Structure formats: structure tokens, C-alpha cells
Amino acid sequence: MVPVLGRYAGLLAVALIGLVVFGPLAVFLPLWSALTLGAVAAAAAGLALARIQTLTARCEKLSGEVDLLSRRLLKVETAKPGPEAGAAAFQAQIEELTVEFGLLSGIVRDLTAVVSTQDAEIASLKARPEPAPPPPVMAAALPAADPPQPAAAARQPAAFEPPAFQASALESPASAKPAAAPLPPRPIPPRPVQSRPIPPRPERDPAREADIIRAFEEDGLEIHLQPVVSLPQRKVVAYEALARLRIGGPDSAAPAEPETFLPVLERDGRTTELDRRMLQRAALVVRHLARRGSDTLLTYSLSPLSLFEPGLLRELGRTVAEDPSLAGLVIALPQASWRGLDAGQRGLLTPLRGRIGFSLDRPDDLRFDAVAFAALGIGQVRVPAAMLLRPQAGGSLSDIAVEDTGPALARVGIRLVATGVSDEADIPDLIDLDVPFAQGAAFAAPRPVRAEVLTAPPDIPEPPTEPGPERRPFRSVLRRAV
Q1: Helices first, then strands: H and E counts in the chain
Q2: Contact 385/430 with Cβ under 8 angstroms?
Q3: Which DSSP state fits 325?
Q4: pTM of this structure
Q5: Which of 91, 100, 241, 292 has a CA positioned 20 to 30 A from the CA of residue 205?
Q6: Alpha-carbon distance 477 to 475, whole Å?
Q7: Phi and psi based region of residue 459 (left: phi greater than 0; alpha: psi -120 to 50; beta: remaining)
Q8: In DSSP terms, which residues pair with 226 in a beta bridge?
Q9: Where are the extended beta strands (E) located within 216-288?
Q10: 242 pairs with which residues across the strands?
């Protein structure tokens, strides 16, 4: 919603200035204001038509590129595969073409949405009738014997006078002039069209943003772990990896949470680098847990913007293919990202399925399709506790009862985790809803990972030692001699 408003910020500002300027003029010069409003509407329609022509040209250009890629793909498919040495290159070309098709489909989908929005705006501009100018006020029809009435009417604008007050003010007493004709009711001018409110943007502090970028570049990023426990036993079964940024050097107070530095990194285009560094540290923690013989899982919430970076997912696929101990790593994505996966993104996530776990995080509602989740390889669904305990407050009602959500997911092998549990009184209610796992400050706060875990050298298997000469007793040697 915010990017759309930012795109039309100039148009909304012009509309607001026009409303402030032409609002008072509509009272005094209605005809000129109506003509000016019509001219502005015509100019806006012309600009919209020019925008549509530009977008149409871009769509034609993209169609040509898609046609070129389809011919290249057809050529690759019809070509005969070469020897085994060229099989890897052949597969790499097919993967690159698949990713390009996915990216182009996303661009075409965005352009289609923009063009449909422009068409709807032009249709609304064409269908909007021009307001009829109100007739001028006839001041000569006022009785000559009542001079105070025009002065009182001039002191108060007509748009704010109720009809009852106007009728009583213009009526003349029976003793003064009984033959005077009453004035016709004054027409109410049309109400101006109100513009859409612009949400206030947070004030940006350049110095603070520079400190955040500097702390991120100087390795001020830390990984904290918060446990996930089972209910009602409260046994630790998993952890969640949380990013924290220590701003101001190692001697600063508590590190900042993602709500503080994540918007700055998104504007600077550093979210993919943040995910890459966090995944590297999460892999070290998973290897440490595997060395200890623990089957505890580690979940990390991936940024939705990282889905549009094929290099990150390919690098993660190569890492998990070379190291089977990373099977305890779970990648979490928002519900909106799972619903909007295109062909290219599905192709990048498919090699990861079965080697690491997938999780659904940050849901918008409770309308979960357990069978579809299992088909995507999702093994965990993380839902805020407030959404489970008070579904009507957030409008997140589903087709099934809330107490049946956990058992419905468990039937297909998906476990439900209630997050953000901060009140001890909510734990019995979650148990009554058959929620098997929970996470929050009521159980344990996030804590930083020890430095020795992140700096531990990789496990190198010891070379087998050659067996030494076997020592036998003298009697066995005598027996063989005999």
C-alpha cells in the first residue's frame, strides 16, 4: 500500500492543493471553478492515456523478449544431448532459462496490475460528471425595508447556513410588507470530492541510518536463539534464530531488534546480504547441535525479498547438498510469499525439499490448506498466539474451528507453533486449543550464541591408524611349530 501511495504522492499533493485553492473559489466564482476543474480533469486524462501508451510499449517489448526466450528454449529442447561431459552445461542452461522465465512472468504480472489500475482510473475520470455551477445569489430580491439581513448573510457563508435559518431570516413580518414575495430556497453547492488520506511517513534520521549501515558493515550483526517448547511439558524441541544489530560498537547497551534496522537495510538493498550472513551462522549452530547428538531444529525467517535473488537459494542448495548435517535447518517464509510463488521460485525451492525443512511464518489469516502445505513441503506453521486466542479481533476467522487447527495440521505431519506468548495466563488457553508447541517471553527470552560455537573449526575426520604387530604368546608359536 505504501509504495502505491508513494508513486502517486505528487498527484495527491496536486489534488489537495487544488481542493484548498478551488474550494473557496467555488463559493464566489462557481462558473470559473467548474471550467478550471474540467480542464484539470482533461489534463489528467491525457496524462493517464500517455502513461498507458508507454506501458503498452513496454509490454510489447517484454512480449518480444518472452518470444525470443521461448524460441531459445525450443531450440535447446529440440537439440540432441551431447556426451556426458556436456550434460552439466545443458542442465545449467535449462535452469537459467527457467529462472529467467520466472522473473519475466513476475514483471509481466506487475505491469498487468499497473495497466489495469490505470484503466480503472481513466474509466472513473470519464464517468465522473462535471458539477453544475450553482446559480448566482440574487441580492436584489431582498426586501428594501430590512437592511440588516444582507449584512448578516454576508457575514456567514451560505454553505454553512442550515435551510431553516435561511427561511426564517428572509421572512418579513406581516406588519412590515405583506405583499413582498418570499425568496426561493438557496441551492446548496455540491460537496467537493475528498482526496484519499496520505499516511504519515516516519521521519528519517540520516545520522541514525548511517550508524546502522556502519554497524552492519563492521560485523555488528549478532544471532540470538529463542527456544520453542512443547506443551504442557515445556521441553525445548527447537530454536528460532533472530537477528540483532549492535549499533555503536561492542560496548553499546542492548542490541537493536529488526524493527529498528530492517527498514533501513531494505531501503539500502542489504536484506539479501543479511539473510546470507544469518544463514551462515545458523549453519554453524546446526552443526554444533548435530555434533552434540541433538535432534533440535533451528528455524530462520527468510526475507520475502530474498526469493527474487536466485543466487542466494542456489548457494543454499549447494551447501545443504554437501553437508547432510544441515537437515535440522528450517527456512520460514510469510504466508503471502507461499501464496505468490511463481514457477521460477518453485524451481529454486524444489532442490531444498527433503534436505532442509520449510515453515510458514507471519500469516495473514487462519485459512490453512493442510494438504496444499504438505504438497509444498511445509512441515511447520507458526501463528501468533493473539491470532489463535482472539481470532475475531483481527478478522482471521477460518472455515474450521480454532481448536481444530492444530489437529488438522498434525494429520498431514505439520506441527503448529504459537509464537509471541508473553503472558503466563495464555498458556492454559493454548493447551485447551490443542496447540502442541509454543514460543515467547513467557518461556524464555532470546539469548546470544556463545562465541566459541560460531568460531569452532569444522569437524575433520581423523585418518585411520595402521595396525601394529600383534603380540602372541610363546605357547601359540610352539604349537604352530609342532
Answers
A1: 18, 9
A2: yes
A3: G
A4: 0.54
A5: 241
A6: 5
A7: beta
A8: 240
A9: 221-230, 236-245
A10: 224
